[in-house]
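Z., the sequence and structure:
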Amino acid sequence: MTIQEQYLYVLKQGVEHWNEMRLQFPALMPELSGADLSEMNLSGANLSETDLTFTNLWKADLSGANLYRAYLWRADLGEANLSKANLNRADLRDVNLNKAVLKDAKLSTDLSRAVLREANLGRANLSRAALTDAVFSRADLSDANLNNAILRNAFLLKANLSGANLSGADFSEVALAGTIFADNDLRTIKGLVEIHHLGPSYVTLYTVKLPQDGSELHFLRGTGVSDEQIYMYPTAMMSHIQYHSCFISYAHQDEMLARRLHADLQDKGVRCWFAPHDMRIGDKIRPRIDESIRLYDKLLLVLSEHSVASQWIEHEVETALGKELEGKPNVLFPIRLDETVMQSRTGWASHIRLTRHIGDFTHWKNHDDYQQAFERLLRDLKAGA
């Protein structure tokens, strides 16, 4: 009987016998290279420093097993159960882990070129792991720890990265498409602009933290996030206070105040739509405006002698009131620059005077008066206010 056959004989007697042998002879480095251990129950087995290169472990139960510094080069672990297994410093290069279960496993090791298609890596610890050229297509990496992991040239097509710790991870030349990002901090990620976007991905935008150095634009556009959402993202993340978003409706004669309001609201983290800034060349004006009013929470209506006489403003007010009829509360947010609306006796302006409290910006050119009126506006735009 060869030495390998002796090891296999003990292992097939059960994990208890195997672990007892390892306790009695702690210096042993068992040799099981190329053995057929498929579908075996090896739960809790002490396989540390064991030679398992080329070994068939397909569908084996290795849950809770100790594989510390095990040699698993080119082993077949397809559909194996490795939940809570210790694989730290194991040699997993070129290993097959298709559909393997690795939940809560310790994987701070070399997984270069490993194939982990559809693998379950939820909450797995891959901190500082070498994952160069690894294939994670459709893998579940939710809540996994990928702190400082090296993922150069890895494939993450349709992988789920929601909640994963990606601090300091190297994403240079990583391939993405259909990849899920949610509750991730990407501010310290490396190689963000070198990612290959093979198709759009899914980004829960306001739960993802991104750097503000220009690399975030490359990433967001690559994942398919629209330019409008990209524009809104920085201001929404600037403040912990959540505000309702605003469409600023005004007559062109009042553009100076509208620009000032737009700048100040953006500075406070309020998402705003402002025609000179947000209307793209070639946009059809009315459909574009109607779409934007529907997208934003509030219509900040700047009332003056000019806007009260404007058919454009009347149409925008009607669109906002239509949203209220559909069940959206208090869409219309009116402020006035003069007394025109207060003197109106007919039409839509009269209806606003009779049914709405109107913010007073009549002295907006005076700094202190403007600040007081602006603070009141900001207070009323708080979500939940």
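The chain has twelve helices and nine strands. Confidence is low (pLDDT under 50) at residues 277-283.

Let me know what you think.
H.
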